[in-house]
Amino acid sequence: MGYTLNDSSVERRGVYKLSFSGCPTEAGEYTITLYARIKSKPNSKECKFTFTLKVKGSGEDVKAMPSITKQPVSKTYSAGTTSFDELSVTAAIATGNEIAYQWYKDSEKISGATSATFTPTSAGKYFVRVSNKDASSKYVDSNIVSIVVLNAGELYPPEISSDLSSSISYDKTSDIEKLEIKATSRDGGIIHATWYCDNVVISGNEDKQISAVNGVYTVSYTPTKFGSYYCELWVVNGENKSQKVTSGSIAVEEKKMVVTIGGLSSTSYVGEELKVSVTTNVETEDIAYQWYTTDASSSSDTEINGATDESYTPAKTGFYKCKVTVTSIGGQKKTVDNGGTVEVVTKPVGAAEIPTITSQPESVSVEEGGEVTLSVSANVKDGGKLSYKWYKNGNSITDATGSSYTISSAKADDSGNYHVVVTNTLNGTTATKTSDIAVVSVSSSDGSISGGFDFTPNN
């Protein structure tokens, strides 16, 4: 099911605004996949974004998550100040929902501070929690802002000109890009910084002295794990110091895990090995396997004791399936099965043997216009004749009947999951073997996102 991307533009670093037409007209849950590359860096790594869109029907209870469109701002006041400017936040939420606000000072709830604006009565660190009025679990916290009152003779704290905000997601921790904050020092002192992850100081990144270039300090850190990051900054000039100010925060998140399993055919013989393959877009902490026998008439599954490897060799006829539980390093957990059952039968005398795949098709990433070649190697020992049929996202590809399949000039919509079914024919009988899944990712050579996404119904 394809749709058209009309435009993409950079709103700020790491954040894009997308508009598209041809959206789903029926309620349901859809998977959206985007492919992108940095336009200014044509040789940069292609990124693949996969997430779920839930399309609600008319009259359904949406209970949407609010979003903050304008953050409150830190401010510094001269010594002796007792009257402070108003803090404010601007937020948005889907139609049919209402927003609730709750302000906090130094992590403590402020009684009665439940509007989009709040006027502090003392110095401290403030933030506001913006939530769905009818679903308190649907909330987002603003940046922490510092209200600083200078003491006599105290240095002026850093002024942050480019801050952290919002969130960004990655498939792998090795893909995480550097976080940067830019600040200036009003009193001529040197800026120092300490980075935090999930409110804990990052070892080796505390009280770091920062160098300035043309009067601008760039405070940077490249995360090595998923979490929520922010930084404290202050100015040091000899024996004098400023008070600390807190940057905005950014959630460095793992993308939603997408798991695909393959490698199983619809039929097999007693004594032949069954083996599943697993592909996922994220780094995995653990992959657990469990094989079952299945009652085809009632769809009930019975766990096979001890059958917890990626392969299993049935000793008797019946229907079999494998459920795979994948745990990502970001803590996501998902259980999927092979999408059906394998019927295991006794091999008739003279019947074709099941092919053995000796070389699987491999996943590949190319730029638009590049060539993609997927290939498989298989053999049989009974003298039968092998034939091949290639599939994309479970649908057969016209005329793709060789041991290899080539896309001579790849387009964005050629991205997808590919596999091949190898068939052995002998004495009027056939036996098949399904390959592992190969993921093909095609990105635009200029980094734009042009038509490179699909809505795929999950049901």
Describe this structure in words.
By secondary structure, this protein is mainly beta. 0% of the residues lie in helices and 52% in strands. It has no helices and 47 strands. The strands form 13 sheets. Strands 16, 18, 19, 20, 23, 24, 25 and 26 form an 8-stranded mixed β-sheet that branches. Strands 6, 9, 10, 12, 13 and 14 form a 6-stranded mixed β-sheet that branches. The chain is elongated and about 95 Å long. The two termini are 13 Å apart. Mean pLDDT is 85; it is low at 1-17, 37-46 and 447-459.
Instruction: Tell me how many strands there are.
Output: 47
Q: Approximately what portion of the residues adopt beta-strand conformation?
A: over 45%
First and last CA, distance: 13 Å
Mean of all residue-level pLDDT scores: 85
